[in-house]
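debug: dumping io for the single-chain case to check the tokenizer round-trip. Nothing else runs in this session.
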Amino acid sequence: DNKMIDSPEIAMMQVEKEIINMSNLAFENYKNGIKEFEKQMSPIELIIMFNAKFDIRVIRNQLGVKLDCTWDGYLAARLLNENEGDGNNGLKALHQKYVLNGEGDAWNFGSLFKGVKFTTVPINTAYLYAARDAEITYELYQFQKPYLDSDNPLCKEKDKLLSLQSFSLQFEQL
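debug: decoded output
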């Protein structure tokens, strides 16, 4: 359109208006997504995580959604074997040791993406790696659960630790 070329101020105003409209639309989509996420999470009785304090903080700080964890594989691992040494108490190491019986590949990020930062991996590749963590967290839960059933005194300790973790995360927000 020749009118835009003749008056760049009008063109800039239209561009600014479009940017504002796009920004407003993105924000509305974000709010709707959060509402949908909260609706889907409300009936769930079992939320399984590994090192839940990290995920709970990220979800709360980035999405504004407050979650409680009902099973933390990291805390369960510490209850089952408090002597598990450094480097051996991460999700992949515990999964490989207990679920895979020491065999198989742990899918360690460093070995898959040598010298590459996770933030530089394209999302259509990164989600495959991240989805694997969810899968092995659930598999580790299935391994740990029989050892921490309601008849086991450690189960009461697990519940206390989860309550304490929830309290401390709430306390951080004060």
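debug: round-trip ok. Helices lie at 2-6, 8-41, 52-63, 73-80, 91-99, 109-112, 123-144, 153-172.
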